[in-house]
Write a structure and sequence with these properties.
The complex is a heterodimer of chains A (about 70) and B (about 950). Chain A is mainly α and about 70 residues long. In chain A, about 75% of the residues lie in helices and about 0% in strands. Chain B has a seven-stranded mixed β-sheet with strand order 14-13-26-25-24-15-16, sandwiched between helices. The chains are: A mainly alpha (about 70), B alpha/beta (about 950).
Chain lengths: ~70, ~950
């Protein structure tokens, strides 16, 4: 795994930590999905989507759910 | 351009009363606001009463006795400066009796004043000389045995001279230092004949507390306090009003000129951001513009190991364009991008992002706000609906409680800092939330913080949640405001969230280090005042939870109803002069001008039609993402104008690696900055004195930047960008920046009513300015917020501890900031005499931490983080708390960003500059990185020298 994907995993989990304050986890996942979709370059989005499909173990469950919605 | 005619001096400040009084002066009827002095009333109808100790920037003093008048039916001859107008008064300003007294007064003054008018530096600009003429002084009968004529000059300040032999002890300088600047560095020492102006305790200016703001020089009526540039070059002959290129206050200045030479920068009395005040940078530190290090010829080279080659503009531009296209052909359309700068004008930033979006064909554009206030843009957009502060600067004068969070206004935004201090001296209460004891806490005369909440770095969100907890659980919410103005469902959710006991000050105390009783008292103070205002800086934004904290601040202001009127609000203090503007102009990779998302169909269609180009609707790369992509070999070309990412960005070794990995780095700058040492094309830029445009300050004020001299390299920066666009095959044909502003106005609703004509007419305009009739918007969100439904949105702000933790190996937290005399990466101020105040970055540490490690002030200390290591000199001080160390980042060789990490804000990737776990130890030599970097830098300067010689 390259450093780049580690950076993206950390970024995604940080976003997840913010939206995790929302008790409705479906709403939270949509918040994460929208944030990533509106602010990440497609290269970054594709990399995290691929990682989520192939491994995903370093992502929180909430973030995994959100990224699955990006695909 | 205007003649050198100075701003009219009305003698005393204006009254703000709305009640009018009527009187008669020399037979002319006049109506003035109640409280207006007779002197000012007379001046308002063109009657200039002789004066020396009065000037309208300070309160009247009544000491010179030159401004005496006669009032019908009243006894004596009152001073017109200290006598307010009364209803029905009949005033005479010129009678024989008054003339006799005035002539006598002048005779006494001149008896102890050098008669060297013809060779005096003030010749032609001396109020004493003018008054001698006005009163008709023809002889001086006194031959005093003792005089001050041989008093010794103080030349210690690099910018101005103090010649006490010419001082008339009018006290204008003393009052300016107190009232305008708020430093109280000057005093009148001694009594009677021995009275003299004294900096500090009879010290030199440089040894005193003087901050060299220039207010005393501005106020001096004689040649006593005089700019050395005027002494050297003589009086200027014309002036042009322009806007300072330093901090986000955006002061208006008159550039006083001799031909194309700036003689001095004089703060503009009509400037609505600064009201005639200035700081040491804007007032004096403009010499960098003509510094010998300026590069004025375009240069290219194949590799950073090669010598530079001076070439024509045509060759340089064509080479840059062909390299960018080559890279796109080889690596793809998205393999190039650009970085705009807050030091460039709105017009320059606008056409640069236009070039990238329309000419490069992608959205890989970012700006330095990424590393400072991007969380402000995000947080305020989400909650209030617009990415900007809510108030004008003058609003602070109506604030009853001021909270300053993570900002140091007296150093970072000094002119606004002076205004804030003035309000605090009038009695406003102050809460400082900062790990460090900034000067406002207790080191500013007559200002003392009611509460200094000395939090642990990185715990901002826990603090703001504790504030909110107190407000919600103690029923201090402004329910009427919330119900009328906010999204009530989001408020109810937020209320439940912050009411949880985990946010209680008693439970956050162990996280934040702030005693619960203090935090509760501060929260009550904020919530219960009539007008409470929050001012914040990079101590809020440059954290892993920067955006969360901005949202938390917005929540707090909405919950207490502190929005939508004068005296309240959420006020980000922007770091650089045009941070607000560069963001407004569409510098972010996900937003077109006016903060509209690139995927928004209506906006996308609008810009595609206007720009006649196919535009991407996908967000581009942010600056740190560009670096990662470069190391992944899919971002290989960069156009960087006015930014110095190789010094200013975090984890600098990573940045340097990324720059080395790129195949073409194009730098447009006035100096061979640190980034240019990694560049392949250098396009010489123009300083703010050499171009026309606008800057937008922290209060959304769009102010004019006017060319006072020709660009040293031949072109203004917008012209260079335009040439590059044309060479890339994307046509741009602007003939003047006003045409660019007209395009911005036509495409951006918040700028619709902005035009150069209106800026010339009004002096400046604050956006939003929705139509041609609008004069701008000093206070935002007065009736509705700018979200689609007009309601303010509350958002949940859970505290999440940063992953950057202290441990046994790295037990201290390093935080960073800036100092008054230097500016950011120092490229400008380091090339001025400002180095006299601060010639190197120091590491501040608490005496306990110093003692534990055997460190004394001036010792070399190594600072090691998980990322890197550097060495600085130590300054042992109680300004920082135990466990926290602090430094500035103005000198590249300091390597402050060698040790900062790549941690960043979750929403915007703004770096977490404010929190780095470090260990420090006493050392004897510079770090390995510093040695290597010095060698690299020296090599690059040699390669530059070779290029200049060859050219």
């Amino acid at each position: 795994m390259s450093n780049k994907i580690d950076t993206l995993i950390r970024m995604a989990n940080d976003i997840g930590n913010f939206f995790n304050a929302e008790s409705d986890k479906e709403l939270a996942a949509n918040g994460i999905k929208n944030h990533i979709s509106r602010s990440w370059d497609p290269r970054m989005r594709n990399a995290i989507i691929t990682y989520n499909k192939e491994d995903g173990s370093k992502l929180s469950d909430l973030v995994r759910n959100a990224i699955a919605k990006l695909d | 351009m205007m003649s050198i005619n100075k701003d009219k001096d009305f003698g005393t400040p204006a009254s703000t009363s709305t009640n009018l009084v009527n009187l008669e002066i020399d037979g002319f009827k006049v109506s003035v606001p109640e409280g207006t002095s007779i002197m000012r009333a007379a001046s308002s109808i063109g009657i200039d009463i002789p004066k020396l100790c009065a000037t309208d920037s300070v309160e009247p003093f009544g000491s010179c006795r030159l401004c005496i008048v006669e009032v019908e039916g009243a006894r004596g001859m009152p001073a017109s400066c200290t006598t307010p107008c009364g209803e029905g008064l009949k005033v005479s300003t010129q009678t024989q009796k008054l003339a006799d007294v005035r002539r006598g007064v002048m005779e006494l003054y001149i008896s102890d004043h050098p008669l060297d008018c013809l060779t005096c530096s003030s010749n032609g600009d001396c109020e004493l000389q003018d008054m001698a003429g006005a009163v008709g002084l023809r002889e001086v009968r006194y031959k005093p045995v003792e005089t001050h004529l041989h008093a010794v000059k103080d030349e210690s300040n690099p910018y101005f001279s103090f010649d006490p032999s010419k001082c008339i002890v009018c006290s204008r300088c003393v009052r300016a230092c107190e009232e305008t600047q708020g430093t109280f560095a000057l005093t009148i020492e001694g009594r009677g004949f021995d009275s003299k102006v004294s900096p500090g305790q009879n010290e030199s200016f440089m040894d005193s507390e003087c901050v060299s703001c220039g207010a005393c020089v501005q106020a001096c009526p004689t040649a006593t306090l005089m700019e050395k540039s005027v002494i050297d070059h003589g009086q200027p002959e014309h002036s042009i009003v322009t806007t300072c290129a330093y901090c986000g206050v955006g002061c208006s200045f008159r550039a006083e000129m001799k031909g194309e030479q700036v003689i001095r920068m004089v703060p503009n009395k009509d400037g609505k951001a600064n009201h005639g005040h200035s700081c040491v940078k804007g007032r004096f530190a403009f010499g960098y513009a003509t510094h010998k290090d300026r590069i004025t010829k375009p240069m290219i080279r194949a590799s950073i190991k090669d010598a530079w080659q001076e070439v024509s503009w045509e060759v340089a531009i064509n080479h840059a364009a062909s390299e960018l296209r080559r890279i796109q052909t080889k690596y793809g359309k998205d393999a190039i991008g650009g970085i705009t700068s807050s030091r460039c004008t709105n017009e320059e930033v606008y056409i640069m992002q236009k070039l990238i979006r329309a000419g490069f064909g992608n959205n890989n554009v970012d700006t330095c706000a990424r590393v400072c206030h991007s969380p402000t843009g995000y947080g305020l957009k989400q909650t209030f609906g617009e990415s900007s502060g809510t108030q004008d600067f003058d609003s602070v004068m109506k604030a009853d409680v001021i909270i300053v969070i993570g900002a140091n206004p007296t150093d970072g935004h000094p002119v606004f800092g002076s205004q804030m201090k003035k309000r605090l001296r009038q009695g406003a209460k102050l809460i400082v939330v900062d790990p460090r004891e900034i000067d406002l806490v207790k080191n500013s005369p007559h200002v003392k913080a009611n509460y200094h909440l000395k939090l642990r770095p990185s715990t901002n969100v826990a603090v703001i949640n504790a504030f909110a907890h107190v407000i919600v659980t103690e029923n201090l919410v402004d329910e009427a405001f919330v119900n009328a103005r906010c999204d009530v469902a989001s408020f109810n959710k937020w209320r439940t969230f912050v009411a949880d006991t985990r946010h209680a000050p008693e439970n956050t105390e162990s996280i934040t280090g702030i005693p619960a009783t203090e935090l509760r008292a501060a929260a009550r103070l904020y919530a219960t005042a009539n007008n409470s205002a929050i001012y914040y800086g990079l101590g809020v934004t440059e954290h892993s939870q920067g955006s969360t904290m901005v949202i938390g601040i917005a929540n707090l202001a909405m919950a207490t109803g502190n929005l939508g009127r004068v005296g309240v609000g959420v006020n980000p203090l922007r770091g650089q002069n045009n941070v607000q503007g560069s963001c407004d102009m569409g510098s972010f990779p996900h937003e077109f001008p006016g903060y509209r998302h690139v995927s928004d169909i209506a906006t996308h269609t609008l810009f595609e039609a206007a720009w006649n180009a196919e535009l991407s609707s996908e967000p581009g790369l942010r600056i740190p993402n560009m670096f990662d992509a470069a190391l992944d070999k899919n971002f290989m070309g960069l156009y960087c104008a006015g930014e110095d990412i190789a010094q200013s960005d975090p984890d600098i070794q990573h940045v340097h690696s990324a720059l080395r990995a790129m195949e073409c780095v194009i730098v447009q700058d006035i100096f061979l900055n640190e980034t240019a040492k990694f560049a392949h094309v250098f396009l010489p830029g123009a300083s703010f004195l050499e171009k026309t445009g606008t800057f937008t300050n922290a209060e959304r004020r769009i102010s004019p930047v006017r060319k006072v001299m020709k660009p040293l390299a031949g072109y203004a920066d917008w012209e260079v960008t335009q040439m590059l666009a044309n060479a890339l095959g994307y046509p741009m044909n602007y003939t003047h920046p006003s045409e660019i502003m007209a395009e911005i106005a036509s495409l951006t609703p918040t700028f619709t009513g902005v035009s150069y004509e209106k800026i010339d007419e009004q002096g400046s305009i604050q956006w939003p300015c929705y139509d041609e009739a609008s004069i701008g918007t000093p206070i935002m969100h007065e009736d509705t917020f700018m979200r689609d439904d007009g309601k303010g949105l509350f958002m949940l702000t859970e505290f999440v501890a940063t992953s950057e933790r202290v441990n046994g190996k790295y037990p201290l937290i390093l935080t960073t900031g800036r100092i008054l005399s230097q500016y950011n990466v120092g490229a400008q101020t380091r090339r001025t005499e400002n180095n006299a105040w601060h010639s190197e970055d120091l590491l501040e540490l608490h005496p306990h931490d110093a003692e534990d490690r055997g460190i004394k002030t001036n010792d070399w200390v190594g600072i090691k983080s998980r990322t890197g290591e550097t060495v600085l000199r130590a300054l042992v001080t109680e300004k920082v708390q135990p466990g926290v160390v602090y430094t500035t980042f103005h000198f590249p060789e300091s390597g402050a960003n060698v040790i900062t990490t790549d941690n960043s804000d979750w929403a915007t990737n703004c770096p977490e500059y404010k929190v780095t776990a470090v260990q420090i130890s006493k050392v004897n030599q510079t770090s390995e990185w510093q040695a290597k970097y010095q060698e690299f830098s020296d090599t690059q300067l040699d390669l530059l020298e070779q290029g200049i010689v060859n050219g």
